[in-house]
Amino acid sequence: MTTTPPSPSPPRPGSSASSATTMTTTTTGAHHSQSQTSPTVAGPVQKPSPPPVDILSTPAAQTYAHVHPALLLALYALRFPSMMADPVSEMTTQVPLLAVAQVAYVITCFPAKGTVMSSAGTAAGEGGAEGAERRAVSGTHGPAGTGVVKAGKVGYRRKHHGHGKGDGIASRLTSALLSLTLTSLLGTPILAILLVLFGAPLTTHSPHTILCAMHMSLLSSTALIYVYGVDGAVWKEVYAFARPADAVWGGALGTGVGAWLGAVPIPLDWDRPWQAYPITILTGAYLGFAVGSLISRTPLLYGKRLSFTAPEEEQHEKSN
């Protein structure tokens, strides 16, 4: 008896096409899923603006930060009769004294560029420019305080910490002298041009204009360069009057505003000896520096920014 093997069942109509369609759909879906989950290339990390800088926490810094503006005003008032008698000679005599006083001020009261910021800066931690730079170099994105800089490690950048005995006074003095040099070579001609643009004599009184610009540059720019160096983000905010208020920016802004207000009495027909150019401008610059340095550290102004737009416009810009 012979057994007949069962014949294979015929394929159902449309099953082959259905299978092909299913495979095509699955493959297309897989490619679509991969295209959706493919990683995107992130752009370069933008370095945020440095936070406001507070006075160093040492007793000497806290004390001298209040003494220095008063000391400058006292010395200026003491020499004011000589200023009225011969402005050029007196301003020339006061330039080295002001330079020494400003160097002592920045060395005593502020952290130099490249060192750990003061309590306000370190409190910002990873949210400030130091933390962003540390994350960008080390590649870590952990919480604040996790990126400890270690020498000899690949991907870490050596940073100078504090004001130790070894590199303290020498490095701070070097930074102060460099900032003084840049202030004299760059700040003086820029401010002299601004004085002329705001109405100072162009063809006469050139020594008066240059010496006044040098005084204003020493008052406004020495601390800025000492603390921030040539950081482009900071200087863009300086040009835009957008730095957060602190002792450094307050002194610089106060110098400019005081000099501008000091020019008001010059054209008045009072015929007073102190109205001669540029005595009132220089007096306003000194007063503005003292007032700006002191009030910008108060809780009312510290960390605040000048705003030239309405609140609705600011909110719209942030949302965009």
Automatic annotation (TrEMBL):
Segments of skewed composition (Low complexity): 14-38
Short name of one Pfam family: PIG-F
Pathway noted in the entry: Glycolipid biosynthesis; glycosylphosphatidylinositol-anchor biosynthesis
InterPro entries linked: GPI_biosynthesis_protein_Pig-F (IPR009580)
Main location: endoplasmic reticulum
Location(s) in or outside the cell: Endoplasmic reticulum membrane
Keywords: Endoplasmic reticulum, GPI-anchor biosynthesis, Membrane, Transmembrane, Transmembrane helix
Compositional bias annotation for Pro residues: 1-13
Gene Ontology terms describing biological process: GPI anchor biosynthetic process
Topology within the bilayer: Multi-pass membrane protein
Domain of life: Eukaryota
Transmembrane segments: 177-202, 208-228, 248-268, 274-295
UniProt protein name: GPI-anchor biosynthesis protein (Pig-F), putative
Originating species: Byssochlamys spectabilis (strain No. 5 / NBRC 109023)
